[in-house]
Structure formats: C-alpha cells, structure tokens
Design goal:
It is a single chain. By secondary structure, this protein is α/β, with parallel strands linked by helices. Helix content is about 45%, strand content about 20%. The chain has nine helices and eight strands. The strands form two sheets. It has a five-stranded parallel β-sheet, with helices on both faces. Strands 6-8-7 form a three-stranded antiparallel β-sheet. β1 (about 5-10), α1 and β2 form a beta-alpha-beta unit. α5 packs antiparallel against α6 (about 140-150). The radius of gyration is 20 Å and the shape is elongated. The two termini are about 35 Å apart.
C-alpha cells in the first residue's frame, strides 16, 4: 500500500520566506504542500476547506498571532498538528504553544538540515501512531511521543554547531557578500573554521560562492546567502 503524502499548510506572512518554506517542504520526501497562507484568517479558511495534516506556523502574523490561531482551531475541535516555525523564543510563547498542542518548535534562523530533521521526526511520529493498536499501552504512547523528541543523527559535519551556523547565516543575510576572513572576524572564529561553515552552506545550496579577482595569487572567494532560503 502506497502511503499518501503528509499535507502541509505553510503559514508565513513574509512572501519570500513563505516561498522558501514551500520549496524546503517539497524537498522532504513524504510531504506535499497543501497551500500557503500569509494571514491567520486565510489559514483558517484553508484548513476548513481542504485536507491538511500539519501546519508550519509562524507565530507573528499581521492579523492574529499564531497562538490565537491555534486557540481558534482548538475551540472548533480541530486537532490538526502544528509545527511552529518562528523567531519567537520568549518563554511565555513557547509555553502557550506547547499547551495548545504544538508538536515541534523550530527557531529561526535555521538551515535546511534542521528543517528536514523536524519534518522527519514528525513523519516518524505519524508512522508510529498509525501502526499502534486502537487501545494504547504505555509503551505505545512512549514510543510514539519519543519520535518527536529523540535526538536525530547529527546532520552537521563534525566540529560545526547549529548555534554558530545560525550566526553565520544572520551575518550573510545582513551584509550581502562576505569573505571567509570577514566572517571569521565578525563571528570570532578562525578563518579556516569560518570557511568550513560557508562551504557547508554552499553544499546545502543555502549560499553561493564566487571568486573575486584583482590581487596577486589565488582569487578570494566571496559568499552570498541565497535569497530564496529562509531565515
């Protein structure tokens, strides 16, 4: 039996980020984009009129907060799953999200590897619950929920961290083209280390590399954050 894709509704007010999240979602096997909404009211309408399994929800929307949107859904007994994809990191927001059934919380900025990891974990959670009997034993419940919080296999090369990677991403987005030496100076790491982060972003198609000619010797490489990728 062929499993149907997980229908995913992207809710993001920034059109560039919304398109980036759509592209990222389509790169993850087993997921399909059910639609894109830039306002909470549009998201509620789409959820009511088409099959949606999970929301990729930004907390900060123009007409209502993502938390308000979740409350509205729960008040109407809509149990659609929610993955928060947001820069909101205050404790009150996180607690509210958890209390309203948000199953994953992905903080911006992030690389595709982190995005993919969250979706893979969610897909595994759905697979385990689908295979569980109607009456669950404690082990069934524990096994299903563990899929959401198990630490996935390391996706970054050895020696690289998500925290520093996020700093490099923010730096590229804010400054346009930068060399590895410029990144190293601003981040506070060795030039070789900065180059490893930059080359990783290039390998993930999150950044581009172009040579800068003009001096003697080998041309300097300049790195630019790809405009179609999210925060």
């Amino acid at each position: 039996m062929i499993e149907r894709p997980i229908n995913t509704l992207i809710i993001e007010d920034d059109p560039i980020l919304a398109e980036a999240h759509r592209m990222f979602t389509e790169r993850v096997p087993g997921f399909a984009v059910a639609g894109v909404a830039h306002f909470g009211t549009d998201a509620l309408r789409l959820v009511a009129t088409r099959p949606v399994d999970v929301l990729l929800l930004d907390v900060n929307l123009p007409d209502m907060s993502g938390i308000e949107l979740c409350r509205t859904l729960r008040a109407h007994r809509n149990a659609v799953d929610v993955i928060a994809v947001t820069s909101a990191r205050d404790l009150a927001t996180v607690r509210s999200a958890v209390s309203l059934g948000v199953v994953q919380y992905l903080l911006k900025p992030f690389a595709f590897a982190s995005f993919q990891s969250k979706l893979h974990a969610y897909a595994e959670y759905r697979r385990r619950t689908a295979q569980a009997p109607r009456q669950l034993a404690q082990t069934d419940v524990d096994r299903a929920l563990a899929a959401l919080y198990e630490n996935p296999a390391r996706t970054l090369p050895k020696g690289l961290t998500e925290a520093t990677l996020g700093t490099v991403i923010e730096l590229l987005r804010a400054n346009g083209e930068l060399s590895s030496a410029q990144v190293a100076k601003n981040v506070g790491v060795a030039v070789q280390t900065a180059r490893r982060y930059l080359e990783y972003l290039v390998s993930q198609r999150l950044a581009t590399r172009t040579p800068a000619y003009g001096g003697a010797g080998r041309p300097e490489q300049l790195y630019r954050w790809t405009d179609s990728t999210p925060l």
